[in-house]
Specification:
mainly alpha
Length: 85
């Protein structure tokens, strides 16, 4: 974990009680729980971009493989061929 920066926030009383209860239940500090929540929230957009990139790479690989007939040794199978056996 890098250098810590102190921040002051204002939350509602219900949020304070929920934060206290959850932190106690998990056995972590309230600060650790807030940091974890921030990581999950802020990492969402970056995670979505990584997932999209990964899917695009996977799809491109599948398209390339289909064009090269990789995995089928050049054989083109039809649904009827597979169900006829």
């Amino acid at each position: 974990m890098g250098r810590m920066v102190r921040k002051q926030i204002v939350i509602q009383a219900e949020q304070e009680r929920a934060l206290e209860d959850r932190a106690a239940a998990l056995g972590v500090s309230q600060s650790a729980l807030v940091r974890e929540a921030l990581d999950a929230f802020l990492g969402g957009a970056a995670g979505d971009a990584r997932k999209k990139r990964a899917w695009e790479e996977l799809r491109a690989g599948m398209t390339d493989s289909a064009g090269l007939s990789i995995g089928s040794r050049g054989q083109r199978w039809t649904r009827e061929d597979l169900h006829g056996r």
